[in-house]
Amino acid sequence: MNINTFPKIELHLHLDCSLSYEVVQKLRPGITRKEYDRDFIAPANCASLEEYLKCAQAPIAIMQTKEQLEAVTLDLFQQLKADNVIYAEIRFAPLQHLEKGLSAKEVVQIVDEVTNVGIKETGIEVRIILCTLRHFSEEHSMETVRLVEQFKGTNVVGFDIAADETLPIDNHIKAFEYAREHDIPCTAHAGEACGPESVREVLGNFHPSRIGHGVRSIEDWELLDHLKEKNIHLEVCPTSNIQTGIYDSVADHQINDIYKNGNSLSVNTDGRAISNVSLNEEYQKLNQDFDWQIEHFIRVNEYALEAAFCDETTKEKLRKRLIEGFKNT
């Protein structure tokens, strides 16, 4: 079984947390590997989610111009290609990239247009999710969700809320209401730093079709069954969950129990640089620790495709690529 050749779908992937050493060298000439490891990779065991998130500051600082945004996006395409990813959704918060004079609309346009270039060059289908952040104001959240609406028909397909899960959600309820009114697909980070109650809060107020992480839902089996019944997809990121202290090791992770419960879930890296992991490595860990075989990986990729925010025509093409790809492994 050669995991590297498996076709893969990745739904939970932060652009600003996935800058390779090679692209950082171009954008910060002279940076050493030691400095990169210190500034761009989170510790294997962070004291908290907050410490993990601090590692996003260095990459965001070098994602402020058209050229920088183009470079990091195309670099991510090459990382996806190395993992044999056939479809990915990359997410970022456009309001974090305005320090050098770009407008939020310009930021989204740049990433959307260079995504078209990456799709053409690699054959990988990629879509974009725009994030608001928990510490943002209501105005910031509304501006972000309106950008999703404004870019309808492009690669921009969804809306998310990320960052410190312990912060209140009040500023963002209106934006998610706007998303529902305008048929904008939504996901939301929850059930990571906080327990199942954060998932319940997000479900009750934001009504997303997917949950970013959501692994702590298993601490409340009634909630886990509710997610299964409503077909709410969990975007699981095993290595990231170890770094933020939810579990001590992948072997202790409860992804296998969630899978056995029949919940829709996918396997993701979260941030390829910040977690210092590839999707191939995530799959290898699941094979090693839970004896996941081809049928497990086919199933989670089918779940991911079903939950993806792309159109049905694209899904049908990807379905064929998945079937063919796994036939040839």
Automatic annotation (TrEMBL):
Swiss-Prot/TrEMBL cofactor(s): Zn(2+)
Keywords: Hydrolase, Metal-binding, Zinc
Domain spans labelled Adenosine deaminase: 7-323
Similarity annotation: Belongs to the metallo-dependent hydrolases superfamily. Adenosine and AMP deaminases family.
EC number annotated for this UniProt entry: 3.5.4.4
Class of the enzyme per the UniProt entry, highest EC level: hydrolase
Pfam family, one: A_deaminase
GO molecular function: hydrolase activity
Name of the molecule in the record: adenosine deaminase
Keyword Hydrolase: yes
Superkingdom assignment: Bacteria
InterPro entries in the cross-refs: A_deaminase_dom, Ado/ade_deaminase, Metal_Hydrolase
